[in-house]
TrEMBL record:
The lineage of its organism: Bacteria, Bacillati, Actinomycetota, Actinomycetes, Kitasatosporales. It holds the Pfam family 4HBT. It catalyses: octanoyl-CoA + H2O = octanoate + CoA + H(+); dodecanoyl-CoA + H2O = dodecanoate + CoA + H(+); (5Z,8Z,11Z,14Z)-eicosatetraenoyl-CoA + H2O = (5Z,8Z,11Z,14Z)-eicosatetraenoate + CoA + H(+); tetradecanoyl-CoA + H2O = tetradecanoate + CoA + H(+). This is Acyl-coenzyme A thioesterase THEM4. It is an enzyme of class 3 (hydrolase). GO terms for molecular function: hydrolase activity. Keywords: Apoptosis, Cell membrane, Cell projection, Cytoplasm, Fatty acid metabolism, Hydrolase, Lipid metabolism, Membrane, Transit peptide. It comes from Streptomyces doudnae. Its EC number is 3.1.2.2. Belongs to the THEM4/THEM5 thioesterase family. GO terms for biological process: fatty acid metabolic process.
Length: 194
């Protein structure tokens, strides 16, 4: 299978990622970073409700159960939904670095069809960092954490300042997120150091 594009090959001067000292302990559930996130929030009726758990180093595991609302072909997960699960999993890794970053590029291989009711078992890790760029990779398996690979992705995240969201997001949601009395939830909505 073809490997990814040149933009997803870290340069020679890229460095190994460093887990932030305040990152959640290995095994700890990350929880939703924002209630209305389609990938992980509980406030989206048809959202993925993906659950990610910190791993060792800058790695994590995640699970997503394909529901009927996630179909593309009859009885099968939509490819865009699977890409969303990969994007959410990869995006969650940045919480272990305590960096605010958005997806710049996401390249996905769809290896096997994923039926409704299947649990997709994901693993992900940051592979390299250079300046504002963060390279990461994820794999999704079915039939169990050691089952056959169904999807995989490589990605480049770009670190941004919190103003990225404040300046570009719809004011209504930005205001609501910033006025959340819970400081930790307020911070996590934008993945900012609390
Ligand atoms: C907040 C919490 C999130 C928690 C998890 C959520 C998981 C889901 C994650 C997402 O889905 S985030 C939403 C989807 N992504 C976006 O909406 C991003 C939209 N794009 C942008 O806002 C800008 O294009 C971006 C911030 C990514 C880059 O713009 P900048 O003006 O800041 O950067 P610039 O264009 O100067 O590029 C900086 C470097 O990155 C490189 N780069 C930027 N975009 C790239 C790209 N798409 N592909 C490859 N390289 C890219 C660029 O070539 C350059 O490399 P060099 O430094 O080596 O010159």
């Amino acid at each position: 299978m073809s490997r990814t594009s040149a933009a997803l090959e870290p340069p020679a001067d890229a460095v190994r990622p460093v887990r932030h000292p305040d990152a959640p302990a290995p095994g700890e559930l990350l929880g939703a970073h924002y209630e209305h996130c389609f990938g992980c929030g509980g406030g989206q009726p048809h959202g993925l409700r993906l659950e990610a758990r910190a791993g060792e180093g800058v790695t994590l595991t995640a699970e997503f159960t394909v529901r009927p609302a996630h179909q593309g072909a009859p009885g099968l997960a939509h490819g865009g939904v699977l890409a969303t699960a990969l994007d959410e999993t990869l995006g969650s890794l940045n919480w272990l670095l305590r960096k605010i970053a958005v997806t710049g590029r996401l390249e996905t291989d769809f290896v096997r069809p994923v039926p409704v009711d299947t649990v997709l078992h994901l693993t992900a890790e940051v592979t390299a960092v250079a300046g504002r760029k963060i390279w990461s990779t994820a794999t999704g398996r079915i039939g169990g954490p050691e089952g056959p690979v169904a999807v995989r992705a490589d990605a480049l995240f770009i670190e941004v300042k919190v103003e990225h969201f404040i300046d570009n997001g719809r004011p209504e949601e930005i205001r609501a997120a910033m006025n959340d009395p819970d400081q930790s939830r307020r911070a996590r909505a934008f993945e900012v150091n609390p």
